[in-house]
Amino acid sequence: MLFTELGLKPELSRAVADKGYDTPTPIQREAIPAVLAGRDVLAGAQTGTGKTAAFVLPILQNLGAPAGTAPRALVLTPTRELAAQVAASARDYGRFVALRTVVIFGGVSEKPQIEALRRGCDVLVATPGRLLDLAQQRQLDLSHVRTFVLDEADRMLDMGFIHAIKQIIKLLPRERQNLLFSATYSQDIRGLAERMLRSPVQIEVAARNATAERIEQQAYKVPKEHKRHLLAHLIEEGNWQQVLVFTRTKHGANRLAQQLEGSGIRSSAIHGNKSQGARVRALADFKEGRVTALVATEVAARGLDIKELPYVVNYELPNVPEDYVHRIGRTARAGGSGAAVSLVAPDEAPLLRDIEQLLKRSIPVAPLPTFKVSAPTAADTARESTGGAHRQGGQRPHGSFGGQRRGGGRGRAPNSFSRGARRSV
Q1: What fold does the segment set 3-204 form as a domain?
Q2: CA distance readout (Å), 404 to 233, 236, 239, 242
Q3: How far apart are CA 305 and CA 284, in angstroms?
Q4: Does the predicted TM-score (pTM) go above 0.70?
Q5: What are the pLDDT digits (tens) for 301-329?
Q6: What does the alpha-carbon distance between residue 149 and residue 143 come to, in Å, rounded to a whole number?
Q7: CA gap 393, 384 in Å, rounded
Q8: Architecture of domain 215-392
């Protein structure tokens, strides 16, 4: 099937073609006709499946011409980054129609957002907190919303937004179209869907909670205090040019980025405490190759649109197994391939078992390569117990993440994780 067969009007088809797409993804193929028909939709789709276009394109078509100043479509997202990404997609796909898209989120001044709303808005993309703030200030009229989209609903609930979502729904007209997108289904998601959706079309384009088969997964069992040294070794020896690294906490993200910088690896951290400007700069530096390692918390990474990201590292395993699916789904997007590696400390063994139970498969454990453990700083000594070791592991295994040393060096046995000097677009 081609995009031209989905019933989109010429202006939208032209915008799709200009972005280089001619064949819809499975979620687009199923969701676009359902949304065009005015049906409620419950869609299960992993990240990187094209779900944003699956709801943006038919919404733009159904809205028709601009009418009034109040938004007629509302897209609610869990994070600033995802809100910005969805709004950018709406503007790109709507470039040949006269519809207006406004995005509002916290962490930046309200004034420009209020001014944009006053100028008129057809599609409003928002995070829950700022949306409620402006609604309570009577700066926002949601009484004309015809289509309501809850994007990444599972993450919304994980972040504690259920009360805000209920408040927002009370501000919307009773008669409206509802679209709910979620990468995973829990009982809470199903309960929300039952309350919110009316006879929905149910779409699931991948097995529930399944990770993309194209992602090659591997784990290393390593003492906590040696993780950063192993990570630096993998990046340097594999000549990785772009890697997204997940930590559990904002403080941990900052600390690891500083430690990697100390090892000569260009790094930056991105998390909720960073200003929006700092987050945008860090992401731009990462995409442009000025930063090799982007260290992020789970929440901050939601909505990051990084094409052809080759490597994802779980520096610390998530407490919730489903978050592992979200994390590694940042690679192997849009039909590509990727590699995901997890560094597993002894106390994280139960978390690894929970992830494997969810996946219904074992994650291969690779032997540790030989890597240097640098002498700890005073700050490190206060935080970590190094045990006095300065070498870890033994024979360098063929199955580890290999490649060439930077600046040349001795080669080693090829393996599927070696990507040499590949750079991401």
Answers
A1: Rossmann fold (3.40.50)
A2: 12, 9, 6, 15
A3: 11
A4: no
A5: 665 667 678 899 999 999 888 788 878 87
A6: 15
A7: 19
A8: 3-Layer(aba) Sandwich (3.40)
